[in-house]
Amino acid sequence: MPQYVLITTQIRLENGPTICGDELSDPVLMAKLDAQLVRDAGNPFQVYSSPHPPRVILNKLACEGFRVVSMAGIGQTCIWTLYLEN
């Protein structure tokens, strides 16, 4: 089954932290990214957050076989979509 990962960070936080997934993301993969589940104040959901900058996260995901399929900037947020074909 193919797997997608959405990576986001605020432009002013390009050195980290980086959001690596939601509460339904693969916990084994999130551990490889050093990501922990966190809940920001006011949000009813949790996300995986890694202290690493996006470049480090993208490199780690590339080593796992993921490839970037798109990148966009929305307001002050950068978003990368990565894909892994199993």
- Read across the widest sheet, the strand sequence of neighbours is 1-6-5
CATH fold type: Gtp Cyclohydrolase I Feedback Regulatory Protein, Chain: K
Total number of beta strands: 6
Q: What distance lies between the first and last C-alpha atoms, to the nearest angstrom?
A: 6 Å
Supply the number of structural domains: 1
SS-based structural class? alpha+beta
GO biological process, one term: negative regulation of biosynthetic process
Organism: Amphimedon queenslandica (Sponge)
Subcellular location: Cytoplasm, Cytosol; Nucleus membrane
Domain BEACH: 1-55
Walk me through this protein's architecture:
With 86 residues, this protein is α+β, with helices and mostly antiparallel strands. It has one domain (3-84): GTP cyclohydrolase I feedback regulatory protein GFRP (Gtp Cyclohydrolase I Feedback Regulatory Protein, Chain: K), CATH 3.30.1410. The protein has two helices and six strands, in the order E-E-H-E-E-H-E-E. Strands 1-6-5 form a three-stranded antiparallel beta sheet, covered by helices on one side. It is globular and about 35 Å long. It is found in: Cytoplasm, Cytosol; Nucleus membrane. One of its GO terms (biological process) is negative regulation of biosynthetic process. This is GTP cyclohydrolase 1 feedback regulatory protein. Residues 1-55 form the BEACH domain.
